[in-house]
Amino acid sequence: MNLPVTQGHVLHYAEFGHPMGIPLLFVHGGPGSSCHPAQAKLLYPEGFRIIQFDQRGCGQSTPGGSLLGNHTAALIQDMDALRLHLGIAQWVVYGGSWGATLALEYAKRYPQQVLGLLLRGAFLARQEDWEWFSMPHGVAQQFPAAYQALRQALGTVDGANPIHGLYQQLLNPQTTQEAAYRYALAWDAWECTVMRLATPTFNPDPTSWQRSIHRARVYSHYCAQQFFLSPQGVLPGLEAIRDIPAILVHGINDQVCRYASTLLLVEALPQCQQVAVEQAGHGMHEITLQQALQQAATTLHTNLLPRL
Questions:
Q1: Which of these is catalytic: 34, 61, 66, 97?
Q2: N or C, which end of the chain has less CB nearby within 10 Å?
């Protein structure tokens, strides 16, 4: 199903789970990623009416990779436009990684519409969080060879953030489609290294390149603009959602969004229940994270029923 919004964007959305269940908005990560039906199975579909949508320029939303009017405030407005379109008064908002950033920003903007928050591997979007993942003084010290390969692939000079190189290359009209795909692949390889996933390989089929290019365009656009937030990311304004029930699932070994950041959220949100997952990192391919998220979704559903 599709929902036209502003600046020519058309959002793709789909519903899963119990049609009469508690509404739950699934906010995907990235920026630039997309939703997959299998993800809904992790959020207690027996009790929730799960609504997934692809953000502007992402997945099956159109136009793919478009950066026009593509910023954080617009995404928040899109989320509430979808709520109104579906005739939902209140819902739970789930978000993982960048999706957690948007979930928190949405809750701050529309606290009366949020029944509860379910967050996984929350990205606080502070300048220090982004530098940890992208600059040489952060997680790059643990993977020096992979980081050097990334810098070389993007032509990054010493001291510069590689994401700016990716952004400039992808927005350069002189960059060919194959070159753009190779630049996107270089960043994917860096992410996979940090998350300890298999390194992606070059696919010679040109019809497969566009999705990777679109994802990298949106991703680098948001990163280069500091996610259209202040240097303190999501932390300012959290007092507006102090009374919203929340469960925060986070892998202790997360090297993308550090576990220590969750402690700041727990401190700021008295109704937040923290679930620390031993021997787990950031990726939802990890079984222990999947199990913890399933349990958290079930718990949140149980806790909300008396409030309805």
A1: 97
A2: C
